[in-house]
C-alpha cells in the first residue's frame, strides 16, 4: 500500500464516519420533531378534555339550579303562608314530590276570632294537621309525599271551617324532576 493509498483510505473512512454521524443526527432530529408534535397533540387533547369537563360541570350546575328553582317566589325551601279570616294567602302553593319544605306560617288574627285560639292547616292526604296560635308565626317543616297532584287543604277552626269555601286552599305537588313528567309514574 502506498502512502497515497493509505491517506485516501483514511479519508474515505473519515467521510463514511461523518456521513453516519450526520444520518444519526438527522434521525435524532426527526424523532425529536415527531415527539414534540405528539406532545403538542397530547396537550391539545388534554386542553380539550379540560374544556369539556368545565362545560359539563357548568351545565350540570346551571340545569341543576334550573330544576331546583324554589316555587312560590320564596327563598329556597321556605314558603310564606298567611292564615286569616279570608283563608290561606297565597291560596295555592306549589311543592315538589318528596322534597322537604319549610312553611313560614303566620297570622295577625286575635284569639277571640278563632276556635281554640288557633288557625289550623288540615290535609289528611298530605299528612298535614297543624295548628297556629293567634298572632304568631310558626315554622312547619314538612316532607311532601311522593304523590304528584292537586290537594285540598283547609282550616277547621274559624269562619265556618271546612264547610266554608274561603277556608280552603290548594297544594299542588309537582313531580320531583323533568324525568318524572315523561315517565309512566304520572299516568
Ligand atoms: Cu282559620
Which key terms come to mind for this protein?
rod-shaped, 3-stranded mixed β-sheet, 4-stranded mixed β-sheet, Immunoglobulin-like, 187 residues, alpha/beta, 2 helices, binds copper (II) ion
Overview of this protein structure:
This protein is of the alpha/beta class and 187 residues long. The chain folds into 2 domains: 1-68; 78-180, Cupredoxins -  blue copper proteins (Immunoglobulin-like, Sandwich). The protein is built from 2 helices and 9 strands; from the N terminus they run αβββββββββα. It has a 4-stranded mixed sheet with strand order 2-1-4-7, with no helix packed on it. It has a 3-stranded mixed sheet with strand order 3-9-8, with no helix packed on it. The relative contact order is 0.11. The model is unreliable at 63-74 (pLDDT under 50). The structure holds copper (II) ion (CU). Copper (II) ion is lined by residues 83, 119, 155, 157-158.
